[in-house]
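Protocol step 4 of 6: structure prediction from sequence.
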Amino acid sequence: MSFMFSADHLAIRQHYADVGRELAEATTLHQAAFDFAGWRRLRDEGLWQLIVPSGPVDTTDWWGFTAALDGLSSTIRSPELLLSVIAQAGMVRAMARHGTASQKERYLSAILSGKVSATCIAEPSTGTDVRSIETSLAEVSDGYLLNGHKYNIAHAPIMDFALVVCRLEGREKNNIVLVMLDTGTPGMMSGPVDDKLGNRNLPTGEIQFQDVMVDRRCVLGEPGRGLSTLIDIISLGRLYYGLAAANLMEPYLADAMRYASARSSFKATIDSHQYVQRRLVDIRIGIERSRWQAYGALSQLLAEHPQALLSCSVAKLVGAEDLIASATSLVKLYGSLGYHNGPVTELMKNALGFASVGGTEEMHRKNIFNQMQRQSA
């Protein structure tokens, strides 16, 4: 099993690394709005053509897309646009693997044109515990009636369409349903943008559903089997969160290496001190550990390996832990300067968001344990 990029993939990676560098230079540090210009730039660069099938022949190249994300995340310096790209990639996987012909035509075309999607899972009382969700779908003569409340939904305030996870009324088991809805559907209401500590260029918010009529053709996959479909969709995002978390540290580590070679303490540059060397080495170890775990998880997921779901959760968990630890370590490395508002403190605030994006640590450890039980059985 080889995780090495081909020559074509390396060219893709370099191209998107250059794009990421340009986007980083264009981003205002404290702006708190979605980067529509960056989003359109990625669309125009052909990012979605790498994974959106075209015609009867499957032209998707997930390793090419991974190379693009690898390059982009290694230079862009802030995670918000990366998290948006990862969420949209999950929607592409949802349509490509589970969508009907009409759903694929409608929503894959929308993605290629730059429309923004949202995946509505979490609820105020249950979090991301899908089995306990309260958003309900009641069967009526001409379709379904949707009622419920979702929160902490990425892109909720700006989305064009959404995948909504809900519970089919009248069933105790096999009752999870996924439905596709467009913004502006009667009874579907978005709330204000959440006021978050970090990742402020990634707008999140609430969505309420009040007697929303849902056509049967809006159901994604088989009604009642939505949980397994959802897991297949979001597993991709989990490993990509790990990859993005790893690569975000790259430019900051390069900055820290230059700083340590120029900053003097006790009549020597601080990179001559073992405790500083260890801090920098630990950051490098975290980057490599998280990156290669993500590559391995992707390889397993694409091959439908029985351990893929476990590996995807490990990739997300390890990536988040390493990123948070590394960002905190950088604040300490820079001393009082590290505590001043600026790029390093902004990184730390954004890094903390990885503790919950794509699921909390507790949720992923629970998933890993469940997968361990299944394998041992």
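Step 5 (inspection) to follow. Residues 226-262 form the longest helix (37 residues).
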